[in-house]
Amino acid sequence: MQQQIDWKKLLIPYDNAVEELKVKFKGIRRELRSIGEYSPIEFVTGRVKKVSSILEKAEKLDVAIEDVEDGIEDIAGIRIMCQFVEDIYTVVDYIRERDGYDLDIVYEKDYIDNFKPSGYRSYHIVIRYPIQTAMGPKKILAEIQIRTLAMNFWGTIEHSLKYKYKHNIPEHVTERLIKAADAAFRLDQEMSQIRHEIRQAQKLFEIRSNTVSDI
Ligand code: 0O2
Questions:
Q1: Into how many domains does the chain fold?
Q2: Are the C-beta atoms of 44 and 25 separated by less than 8 Å?
């Protein structure tokens, strides 16, 4: 007989993990900017998967409901957005440096070098993250997705189209999406070529804004 799951209770540590991880990565940005350094992190978001999505994914992956905590790696997920592709790998290095300290890396998936047939690009790191619960310490799985703003723009739109078409996006839309993913990646490559100029301009603009707000 299928075990009754208390989803509210099960998801509390995941909620806490998402909040903690968001604070930690936003903290890196705040720290770097406060000392006048460039931050490879533009912004951070996070979410806990909805129960309906957990159940859907469990069915897709053939994971028993009582095994979802081990079988589904992205119940807790955070997304780190970067300006440039190079920044993604800087953030990956930050995370690798933390391996064994406040998180354990389980594995990494580079969907930038190996983009998906859909056109999806992003860097994924699955971690085990220690969390303190009222019942004691617990290590949960979480997925960190690191991507550029352009990759995020594409991913968000494709995700909503998948939702609209219930995963059966019409062929002509799929073809457009693949072209759009390539165009977004070309935009990232073009921006990378002039990233030093962009960064200098942003720094100047920031100094000017700070001076104006000081008046
Ligand atoms: P949600 O709503 O974002 O949580 P696979 O079976 O190998 O294709 P798998 O096992 O689900 O993929 O794991 P993977 O590759 O790590 O992908 C997990 C998450 O990456 C997805 O979660 C999405 O957030 C994102 N993702 C992966 N592929 C695509 C894609 O083609 N398009 C978009 N927009 N996002 C993608 P969920 O559970 O699918 O959705």
A1: 1
A2: yes
Asked if residue 155 has its Cβ within 6 Å of ligand 1, the reply is yes
102: enclosing H helix or E strand: none
pLDDT in tens, 77-123: 999 999 999 999 999 999 999 999 999 999 999 999 999 999 999 99
Active site residues: 143
Nearest to 174 by CA among 123, 117, 121, 214: 117
Asked if residue 116 has its Cβ within 6 Å of ligand 1, the reply is yes
CATH number at residue 43: 3.30.460.10
CA distances from 99 to 73, 111, 113, 208 (A): 17, 21, 23, 39
Average pLDDT, the chain: 94
Domain with 182 in it: 7-214
